[in-house]
From TrEMBL:
A cytochrome P450 monooxygenase involved in the metabolism of arachidonic acid and its conjugates. Mechanistically, uses molecular oxygen inserting one oxygen atom into a substrate, and reducing the second into a water molecule, with two electrons provided by NADPH via cytochrome P450 reductase (CPR; NADPH-ferrihemoprotein reductase). Acts as an omega and omega-1 hydroxylase for arachidonic acid and possibly for other long chain fatty acids. May modulate the arachidonic acid signaling pathway and play a role in other fatty acid signaling processes. It is a multi-pass membrane protein. This is Cytochrome P450 2U1. Belongs to the cytochrome P450 family. It catalyses: N-[(5Z,8Z,11Z,14Z)-eicosatetraenoyl]-serotonin + reduced [NADPH--hemoprotein reductase] + O2 = 2-oxo-N-[(5Z,8Z,11Z,14Z)-eicosatetraenoyl]-serotonin + oxidized [NADPH--hemoprotein reductase] + H2O + H(+); an omega-methyl-long-chain fatty acid + reduced [NADPH--hemoprotein reductase] + O2 = an omega-hydroxy-long-chain fatty acid + oxidized [NADPH--hemoprotein reductase] + H2O + H(+); (5Z,8Z,11Z,14Z)-eicosatetraenoate + reduced [NADPH--hemoprotein reductase] + O2 = 20-hydroxy-(5Z,8Z,11Z,14Z)-eicosatetraenoate + oxidized [NADPH--hemoprotein reductase] + H2O + H(+); (5Z,8Z,11Z,14Z)-eicosatetraenoate + reduced [NADPH--hemoprotein reductase] + O2 = 19-hydroxy-(5Z,8Z,11Z,14Z)-eicosatetraenoate + oxidized [NADPH--hemoprotein reductase] + H2O + H(+). Residues 1-18 form the signal peptide. Its cofactor is heme. It is found in: Endoplasmic reticulum membrane; Microsome membrane; Mitochondrion inner membrane. Its main location: endoplasmic reticulum. One of its GO terms (cellular component) is cytoplasm. The gene is LOC118412851.
Length: 503
């Protein structure tokens, strides 16, 4: 069967699309000079010219995990003729990102929106002195504005109170909590970055949330034209990519407007938030042509803080509510522990966490099952290396399948079963598991890990302190099957929040 026959036999909405795919494949193959590289780990055989492209249009983490059963924890796939080494399983990922961090800590080249292609924030920045300087500043600034301190707890609890007020007004009526949770987590980021928050009915705030939601609902395959411009010949991919890029331009414009406001009121003796801290650092380096503290770098940093710190945490909380609905017995045990440790009248605090092992175990199991970020951002080798007997050359793209660790039956018996006792010992004490790599590993560990954990604990315990979550009366239980895009999120569902009686 010819390659064109294979393409036309695929399940595409229109035969014209299949024809265009074939044309794109031919063009890309002619333009792409790179061929198969000897010594790379073996992997699934792909189609001529396109490689494994069409197999990877499905839910990639699941596909990669299935392939690992045949090809091992380290294998190679091809996007057209570009190889990508895929890592599955805790040992392979730790060996690569921690033991061999000197080689595997960088990022591949990528074009970004904006006039300064060097302004890649933290997530997209290669492992360079620029990255180290920006990460050091970001971590220091976040600490200065409360991350890891009691003052941050106060900001989070302020948002929780606003959330509880809105939920209370539903008065046992069915509603979706997804957008409300995103309001809460995005406002936490807003308070850190902008020094302000949005009311839940604020038009501009809701526009920002919608843009963030649309960003995370984008399928990876929809962005194929960014890596392979010839794919723009396919109408649906061209449209999806343009929609994504227009969305990002709006987010960037929103951030630039906030920066302009801060510049107008900037006072180096009154540093109010992350934006001010960055502007102060930039003023110290005025005249330095090599300074990395540029306005475009600030725009990229803030965009990434919002995207990584709002939608992902809100999605995990959305999963938390879902699992409480699906497992009322576990919800009841969490209620009992909150009642005994926190009580009905005081706010939860991070000081309570060590006294609440069952709640901590439940949150860990929620995070494992949610697997909100199932694939880590792509890595890139900075030199040749031999890994498990295979030759991985310099400038190879590396995919890290976090999902394969969180759903590994060797680590978690019955991995699709929700069971908080995985994180408890025989005496009921909480047990940390190093395999719970929610924020990846090594030098590119997510800088927002600490804030996310504080938010999850305080928001979850505050909600369970006040409400019992149930399905609407007479309705079917919601599904525990998730939806894969940039993040792994619950399928939409309606719920009821029944106020708990104070005892």
């Amino acid at each position: 069967m010819s390659i064109m026959s294979v393409l036309l036999a695929l399940t595409w909405p229109w035969s014209l699309q299949a024809l265009l795919v074939g044309v794109v494949v031919i063009i890309t193959t002619v333009l792409c000079k790179r061929s198969s590289i000897p010594g790379l780990p073996p992997g699934p055989r792909g189609l001529p010219l396109v490689g494994n492209l069409f197999s990877m249009t499905k839910d990639m983490p699941l596909v990669f995990q299935e392939w690992s059963k045949k090809y091992g924890d380290v294998f190679t796939v091809y996007m057209f003729r570009q190889p990508r080494v895929v890592l599955n399983g805790f040992r392979a990922i730790r060996e690569t990102l921690v033991t061999n961090a000197d080689v595997f800590s960088s990022r591949p080249p990528t074009s970004i929106l904006g006039p300064d292609q060097n302004a890649k924030g933290l997530i997209l920045e290669p492992y360079t002195p620029r990255f180290k300087e920006q990460k050091k500043f970001t971590m220091s600034a976040l600490r200065d504005f409360g991350v890891g301190k009691r003052s941050m707890e106060g900001k989070i609890l302020e948002e929780v109170r606003a959330l509880i007020d809105v939920i209370t007004k539903t008065e046992n009526q069915a509603f979706s909590i997804s957008r409300l949770l995103k309001n809460t987590t995005s406002n936490v980021i807003c308070s850190l970055v902008f020094g302000s928050r949005y009311e839940y009915d604020d038009v501009k705030g809701n526009e920002l949330l919608l843009m963030i939601e649309q960003t995370f609902s984008t399928k990876a395959f929809d962005l194929l034209p960014i890596a392979f411009p010839a794919a723009r010949m396919i109408p649906s991919l061209k449209k999806a990519t343009e929609r994504y890029q227009n969305n990002q331009r709006k987010i960037l414009q929103h951030i630039r407007e906030e920066i302009a406001k801060h510049k107008e009121t900037f006072d180096r003796n009154d540093i109010r938030d992350f934006l001010d801290a960055f502007l102060l650092e930039a003023t110290k380096r005025e005249g330095d042509q090599n300074s990395t503290f540029t306005e475009e770098q600030l725009v990229s940093l803030v965009r990434q803080l919002f995207l990584a710190g709002s939608d992902t945490t809100a999605n995990t909380l959305h999963w938390a509510v879902l699992f409480m609905i699906l497992h009322p017995d576990i919800q009841q045990k969490v209620h009992q522990e909150i009642d005994s440790v926190v009580g009905p009248n005081q706010d939860p605090s991070m000081e309570h966490r060590s006294k609440m092992p069952y709640t901590e175990a439940t949150l860990s199991e929620i995070s494992r099952m949610a697997a909100t970020v199932p694939m880590a951002p792509r890595h890139f080798t900075t030199s040749d290396i031999f890994l498990r007997g295979y030759h991985i050359p310099k400038a190879t793209r590396v995919e890290v399948n976090i999902w394969s660790v969180l759903r590994d039956p060797q680590l978690w018996p019955e991995p699709y079963k929700f069971d908080p006792t995985r994180f408890l010992d025989g005496s009921g004490k909480f047990v940390r598991r190093e395999e719970l790599i929610l924020f990846s590993m090594g030098r590119r560990l997510c800088p927002g890990e600490r804030l996310a954990k504080v938010e999850l604990f305080l928001i979850f315990t505050s909600l369970l302190q006040r409400f019992t979550f149930k399905p609407p009366e007479g309705s079917r239980m919601p599904s525990a099957d998730g939806v894969f895009s940039v993040v792994h999120s619950p399928a939409p569902f309606q719920m009821v929040a029944e106020p708990r009686k104070k005892k």
